Amino acid sequence: MKKKTGFTLAEVLITLAIIGIVAAITLPSLLVNVNEKAWDAQKKALHARLAQAIGQMNTLGGYGTYTEDEKGTATEDTAAESFILDALSKVYKINNVCGPDKLSSCGIPTKITTLDAVSEINFPTKMKELNAKLLNGEHNPGEEGDMADTKAAAFETVNGESIAVFYNPLCSSDSTAGHFAQNKMCVNFLYDLNGSEGPNQVGKDVGFITAFYNKNPVVVAPIPYSKDYVSQMPQYSEDAGTLDAPAACKAMGEDLRLPNRDELASLFINAPLVNLYESTSNYWSSSVISSGASGSGYAQNFTIGTRTSIGRYYDFFVRCIRR
Does the pLDDT value for residue 27 go beyond 80? Predict the structure, then answer.
């Protein structure tokens, strides 16, 4: 009697079916992981390129024209488009520039999904749509200059990214008196790494880069975690045995950290995109002014935009960002 040396057709079909089921289960998650790693690398490269370009500019303020009538209605608004054409394009290679009424021609999607993957919103087309609290009138414009409700313009990069530009020509320097984050914001870039192609979600292919301060600009690109630290509101303390804000981020994940004061201000600027729009709380940054439990650090208010130095013994919330 001959020994069996092969497989029957039924055995082969069953094996292939099992392989197909396993592939169907595991392949989507593998593809997501691959995409997210590629997006993370692309985000870091984009941040580095824009930071280098902005570092070559003498000033970030004053480009274009923005005027309002007595009712506060804009009568002329060339600010964002002028910033791209007259400033950024001189130090950064740009493929295409699109005015406020033609953002889609630069690959800007009409809708994006927020960081929580639950809410779909219209892509903002002007400063107030980006975050209404930037122009809520709570801050005193006489002290720090004003913030213009400018329309967004857009451009495409040579690497295929689509980037909308929200520009404040009235931005101030870091040394200017006052403590409102919005008046120190000069440019906010809201980008989509692959244009109008999906998933068009914040934290995946959609993100933001913010440039603060008219002189000696700081360019940040925080990638936020989707949830607050909620087990308790942590003090910013480094004393042994006391829960501190940096440790709260580490407790949520080794790849998370506490944002510095400019990164946290960037989260405020883009609050509706990262599900912080309804917050009425203060959040800790990692920027320390003086050490010790009785020392002070910077916190960001998400209601009116105040960025203040305050004693580190206060209980504030924490929103972490990825390293």
Answer: no
Peptide bond into 169 cis (omega under 30): no
| Domains, the chain | 32-221 (no CATH), 225-322 (3.10.100.10)
Residue 83 to residue 91: CA distance in whole angstroms: 12
CB 189 within 8 A of CB 124: no
Exposed e or buried b for every residue in 57-92, given b needs 16+ CB within 10 A? beebbebbebeeeeeeeeeebbbbbbbbbebbeeeb
Q: Please check whether residue 125 is in contact with residue 100, taking contact to mean a CB–CB distance below 8 angstroms.
A: yes
Model's pTM, two decimal places?
A: 0.86
Residue pair 152/123 in contact by the 8 Å Cβ criterion: no
Helices (H), 101-174: 127-130, 141-144
C-alpha dihedral, 277 to 282 to 287 to 290, nearest 10°? 170
Phi, psi for residue 51 in degrees, rounded to 5: -65, -40
Tokens of 210: 């913010």
Are 285 and 264 within 8 A, CB to CB? Answer: yes
Contact indicator for 80, 211 with CB cutoff of 8 Å: no
Among 15-19, 125-129, 248-252, the range with the most confident prediction by mean pLDDT is: 125-129
Helices and strands (H and E) in the chain: how many: 7, 16
- How far is residue 223 CA from its own chain's centroid? 6
